[in-house]
Amino acid sequence: MSSAMRLLILGLVGLLLFACTPIKPYPSSTPKQPDFDDIKDSGPEREIDTSHVPDAVPRHEARTMAGNKNPYTVLGKTYYLLEDESSYKERGRASWYGKKFHGRRTSNGEIYDMYAMTAAHKTLPIPSYVRVTNIQNGRSTVVRVNDRGPFHSDRIIDLSYAAAQRLGILNAGTGMVDVEIVLPDDAPPAPLKANATNNVIAGSKLPANTHLQIGAFSSEASAKQFAAQVSGHLTYPVIISRNQTGKPIFRVRVGPITDARDLQQVRLDIKKLNIPEAHVVYE
């Protein structure tokens, strides 16, 4: 057999082998984004000190059907809201939720802020205020309930990142707590009212005196300098608030903000100024 014939036969065999080899598709240039349920919740990339964030201050607030559907069903289980929470007190396990839900809407349409003193509860009317006490170390804080959950049989309340840090349960993820209702001025619970029949989106109106806190300083001069630098870039007023007790702390805040959609826009404006995460305060 001539050399030319051998080369021709080898070439044909190679072509046949190549044809029999399965061709793997090229990977997509756009990686598939994980489903929301598959994303693991966490805190910020680095731990942020929220010790300067004040407790929620109980105040009289109108209650609407936003977040107060009664009864409601989640994961096949039906929950009934407490008809009278004035004597509510419970001991159980608390957990916390953070970055996965940060900036998303809560059950009543507000924007979840993991740096504010808030919580989720399965059956308390929204909004409610409760004092949560870690029974292991005695630490306590007052939080505003504006969300539903946690939907785990062994947990009674889901705290914000800031509240969990205050109680010392961040690293453990959960902790045994006492939860007790706090009523403004020992007044009776606010009655549930139907939503107004106008074009306002349920939950878009924020509580009175809602602010975004963007900084805290031990020096009043530094606080004024910072406020002056950012005020020209924001549409809402920038104010300085000083604590009334303890070591002086001068907090720089934006507001008051009355609408949840405006709150989200102000957040975006603040982010453009390269200011670390602003958090909501209600005072």
Give the key terms.
globular; alpha+beta; 283 residues; 12 strands; Alpha-Beta Plaits; 23% strand; Barwin-like endoglucanases; 4-stranded antiparallel β-sheet; 6-stranded mixed beta barrel
Descriptive overview:
Strand 5 and strand 6 form a beta hairpin. The N and C termini lie far apart (97 Å). It is globular and about 50 Å long. The protein has helices spanning 3-20, 161-167, 220-231, 260-272; strands at 72-74, 77-79, 89-96, 118-120, 128-134, 140-147, 157-159, 174-181, 210-217, 238-242, 250-254, 279-282. It is α+β, with helices and mostly antiparallel strands and 283 residues long.
Condensed summary:
It contains 4 helices and 12 strands; from the N terminus they run αβββββββαββαββαβ.
SSE layout and pairing:
Elements: H1 3-20, E1 72-74, E2 77-79, E3 89-96, E4 118-120, E5 128-134, E6 140-147, E7 157-159, H2 161-167, E8 174-181, E9 210-217, H3 220-231, E10 238-242, E11 250-254, H4 260-272, E12 279-282
Parallel strand pairs: 3-7, 4-6
Antiparallel strand pairs: 1-2, 3-8, 4-7, 5-6, 5-8, 9-11, 9-12, 10-11
Structural class: alpha+beta
Topology as a string of helices (H) and strands (E): HEEEEEEEHEEHEEHE
Task: Using the coordinates shown, work out and report the CATH topology of the domain at 72-186.
Answer: Barwin-like endoglucanases
By CATH, the superfamily of the domain at 72-186 comes out as RlpA-like domain
Q: The biggest beta sheet, please?
A: 6 strands, mixed, barrel
| Radius of gyration (Å) | 27 Å
Shape: globular
Name the average pLDDT. Answer: 79
Low-confidence stretches: 15-21, 23-30, 194-203
What is the number of helical segments per DSSP (H or I, 4+ residues)?
4
CATH class of the domain at 72-186: Mainly Beta
Give the percentage of residues in beta strands: 15-25%
Number of strands: 12
